[in-house]
Amino acid sequence: MAQRLEITKTYKLYIGGKFPRTESGRSIPLHDAKDRVIAHVCNASRKDLRESVEAARSSTGWASMTAYNRGQVMYRLAEMLEGKSGEFQQSLQVISGLTAAQARRQVEESIDRLICFAGWTDKFAQVTGSHNPVAGPYYNFTVAEPTGVVAVICPDEPALLGMISLLAAPLCAGNTIVLVASETNPVPAVLLAEACATSDVPGGTINILTGRRSEVLEHIAEHREINAIGGAGLNSRQRKILQEGVAENLKRVHLVEETNPDFSDTDAWTCPWNIEQFTEMKTIWHPSST
Amino acid sequence: MMDSTGIENQLQSWEYSEAPESTTVDIDQEHGLFIDGEFQAPSGGGSFWTINPSDEQQLSRIARADEDDVSRAVASSRAALKKWRKTRPSERAKYLYRIARRIQERARELAILETIDGGKPIKESRDIDIPLVAQHFFYHAGWCDKLRYVSGTREDPNPIGVCGQIIPWNFPLLMAAWKLAPALACGNTCVLKPAETTSLTALRLAEILQEVELPPGVVNIVTGDGTTGAALAEHGGVDKVAFTGSTEVGKRIAAACAGTKKRLTLELGGKSPNIIFADASIDQAVEGIIAGIYFNQGHVCCAGSRLFVEESILDEVVDRLEHRMQSLRVGDPLDKNTDVGAINSEMQLATINRYLNAAHTEGATMHSVNGSPLPDRGFWCSPCFFTDVHPSHTIAREEIFGPVLAIMSFRTPEEALVRANNTPYGLSAGVWTDKGSKIFEIASRLRAGVVWCNTYNKFDAASPFGGYKESGFGREGGRQGLRAYLSH
């Protein structure tokens, strides 16, 4: 069968559970591995970013779900990705230029990773939290809470596994997400949006922007309603833009510095400390007496 | 038998006798920098006076470290790192245990020195600060040979390296302990920069480090002002910066660290809400509110400086606070009966007074201690609180760092939560109610790193402390606090 991606549309953004076009009306061409234009994607603007953050901020469904329920929804999302595995695979072959075997492996790893984090939702807090034996008649314990709205900045490649690896940890902790897709291959992000829209992920939990990453970095750093940033695939100049920008509002920044991080390193990417980065430790005291 | 009115009259006529701390502490006229295990003169020869804020007496001349001195200190810590990180963990632990023991043995001297140099009541430095300092070293000593259990790693995790640690003046020695103990336990070496107005106890700690034969360079102490701190934070040889202080300075440090590989933890300001529901035990709550705001003259980053009272009990709570406040004794910090000591510095007093003026201008109503007059010399501020405060008032929004409480009321738990969380800060919060389910609901929805329920301002080495939002990031204390000093 000839490799061909049936694409005739301009891919849209995913904000608040809906698929709007960018308010800016701008789009950029999407090239296949042989540099032929095969589609267009929205080039998200600062205003699209603001609307995504607003959707993520006002969406209360995800954080207020029980951890068990979040795990079920993430597992359901993994099921949806499995159902779309052919589309994911094709996008990785046509646009990222992977072989069929490479593409299949990446899709499988990505789904497995999401399932791993579906299992973490109701467990990581038991690993990261503690009961603290203070020297006095007090009951004292520390629990992890979601940091809030997390901006996830995806590396260009691996377009699917990089995105899922960066997304799953903050998502499983109960954060809501503004995700900036791979610039060179945003199709897996668009497919993820479609999976979210048809699964039980509440609208606004995951918002997806495509387009030129460099245009929104500064605004992500400055936006006061974004509480944390996770990302990979940024160069040192881009990392500095983020770090300088957040100095004014002290949002948390966790950037993978290696140029080509090994996303296949399952131990490193599925440990609960990746989740902890997108939580805040709250310590609660209460007197203990009769 | 006397009737109750008689007793009350008699009680009111009784005067407290003065109970000054009688132990004297020798203070050297000059203090050098503690570099490479020895006290050294600063290369530029600069120095400044540290004074007793309760009588403005000059206590000692403190060396001002310039960039060269900071570089020497960082180089010394770098050189010491190689051996210290390889020191057998159980041996490293013994140094920390020794430090803890010596602090206990010299506790009286340290408490007095803390009170003389910083202005806090002796009963606080004696019963809270110094015991917690010792506990912090004891607690972390025990972690040295158990670090692989912090994150469940197969092998002992590595230290980060050379830590530049900048601390504030409100809990001088306690903050030094919060910084040094976990860093050393994890095998890091440290350059500590005490606050300009409160260097003496850190320098006395340096003597203790000599006594316990801590290898030279494992801890260097550079005294000075903000420029010394900036030189340390910006120094290329520092692997990790830990700062406790104002949000404003914290942001400058974050900017300075941008684009570098430095790890950073920040423990910054707060405007913490204290919420009291009508179903609380009011007597307990009033004591907690007093402790929450007047502890250490309100020079506390987690001070409960915004009080939210359920409307139905507002008048009662205000009356009781007014009454309770009158019995606070303000004065000589060395007097064991003193509840509220001296304001740490002339500059801080001016800041507090600016906020008091703003409160008057903006229309809040002041309630203050109308008891004994304040001493003529020194820096003093009577404890006070304000009613008729609107959320937009300056004293309801900005950190004052003084004995000033803003009181507001609320009608529903939802309203209390929204207003409590409506701040860029998120360091701590208090909630007072006798209803268990309400405690958990409110505590879990308050966006703050420490939530005190039916208590306030409690600290412990095993209890992680640190903020949400613009109150900073990272935790100090407990297992969680160690992660800031271990590389992943």
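Chain A has one domain: 10-287.
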